[in-house]
Every structure is written in C-alpha cells, then in structure tokens.
Design a protein that fits this description.
This protein is elongated. Helix 4 packs parallel to helix 8. The N and C termini lie far apart (50 Å). The strands form two sheets. The chain has a six-stranded parallel beta sheet with strand order 7-6-5-9-8-10. By secondary structure, the protein is an alpha/beta fold. The protein contains eight helices and ten strands.
C-alpha cells in the first residue's frame, strides 16, 4: 500500500512551482513514460489511485506516493489531470555548437508556438533548438504541445548577446523568413543551417536579422500576408530537410 505524501512536502512543491524553478510537473502519462524511458530520474511520482500505475512504474516504488485529488489539481496545469503527476528536476543544456541543422526561436512568447516548433524540429532532424529570450522550456504548455519531444533533442536557453557571440564564432549560416526573400520552394542549400523564427508580433530582432545571410519567403495567395510562427517555421524546416527523408 502506498504512503500518502507529507503535507509539508506538498506545500514546498507548490511554492517551487510558483517560483518557476527547474522542476517539470508532468501530468500526461505518455510524456511521463517518455521522460522515464530516456533515464530522467523522478523526484516524486504522485497518484490519486495506485491502480492508475502499471508495471512500467515498478522501478520507482520508493518514489511513488498517494496524494489527494485537490492537491494534485493544484500542482497540475491540466483542467482534468489524468490522476498521475511526475515531478522531475530538469537540467537545461549548455550553449553548445550544433552538429545538425538547428532552430533559433528569437523572443517567442506563445508556449503553444514554441512547443509545436520543438516538435517539428525533432521530426525534421533539427536536433538543436535555441530559445533566445523566449518562453521557458519548463512551461507546462510548451511541454504539452511538444508532446514530450523536449526530451529527444537539445533545447538550449540563452540570451541574445551570448548567442550572437557564439554563432559568430561557429561561422554557421542563419536563415530568416521575409516577404522579400527567395521563394522557399525554389531555395536550395547543402550546408548546415540555422532557421531563425522571430517574435509573434515583432518578428526577428535587428541583432539576429543582421546575422542572417539568407532570406526566404513563403508564397501566399488571397492577400494573406503572414502565417502563424509555428506554421511558418514548420514549412521552412520541412522544405530544408525534405531530401533527408527516406523516399520509401
């Protein structure tokens, strides 16, 4: 029989959640399993009913505790949590040089956009995503909309000044989208490249824009002038990486 988690510990977890520490509060069973499958070590696995846990959780019995439904809902960001919450300490990646194509999110604040772009980056083999003064990767909506792919690729959070310094040293081409750029469907590139997606309202910052040696446009009809950031980024990443997929 599982032991109920101490109320003082619950209060401390609520405090840490409010303070936006680097703790992940995972309330989606698939995402929890993905996190555990790559070796991330949970601090606590909390459940309102141990019957909700299957054999996959047998290795973590010393960290599994019961919790009342109200407390679980307060720690979860889902309106209707499944009934299991996994709390994991997340260690952000350092500012390292990419060895694949990569994605740069410059000042994005919509967690849905950021999560969706991370998911597409993973699908396209863009194994590095740099969050430049953007919403935190630990944001629950980012995790949910990425469907757990934050655990599969390198997510690096940094500021604009540090990133600009590093990318200049790396001497890797950056590409941005602009209406005056080359049609993305006529664009060709055989070198490593970084795709820069700018803030939802302001676009790419001047500092990063000045570093972009390449510019592409996405053709549109019916007087449509722009697309959602995650849609634009996804189109560009898939077009850039289309030759890297198995034709079968």
């Amino acid at each position: 029989m599982l032991v109920k988690l101490n109320n003082n510990i619950i209060k401390e977890l609520k405090k840490q959640k409010r303070e936006k520490s680097y703790l992940l509060f995972l309330d989606n069973l698939k995402i929890i399993k993905d996190a555990l499958s790559i070796g991330l070590n949970p601090i606590y696995i909390l459940t309102i009913d141990e019957k909700l846990l299957n054999s996959e959780f047998d290795n973590y019995k010393g960290k599994i505790f019961l919790i009342d439904k109200k407390s679980l809902e307060q720690l979860s960001d889902s309106k209707t949590p499944y009934g299991v919450l996994c709390i994991i300490e997340y260690h952000p990646n350092t500012l390292i040089k990419p060895n694949t194509n990569f994605l740069v999110l410059d000042g994005l604040q919509d967690p849905g956009n950021v999560g969706s772009l991370i998911r597409t980056a993973a699908a396209c083999g863009f194994n590095y995503v740099y969050l430049i003064e953007s919403v935190k990767v630990t944001n629950s909506k980012v995790i949910r909309s990425s469907v757990g792919t934050i655990f599969n690729i390198n997510i690096i959070e940094t500021n604009r000044k540090e990133f600009i310094k590093k990318v200049s040293e790396w001497n890797i081409k950056l590409l941005k989208a602009d209406m005056k750029g080359t049609n993305i469907f006529k664009f060709s590139n055989n070198e490593q490249i970084g795709i820069v997606i700018g803030n939802e309202g302001q676009g790419v910052s001047k500092e990063l824009s000045d570093l972009c040696k390449l510019t592409v446009s996405i053709p549109m009809k019916n007087k449509v002038e722009s697309l959602n950031a995650s849609v634009s980024g996804s189109i560009i990443m898939y077009e850039i990486s289309k030759n890297n997929f198995d034709n079968n």
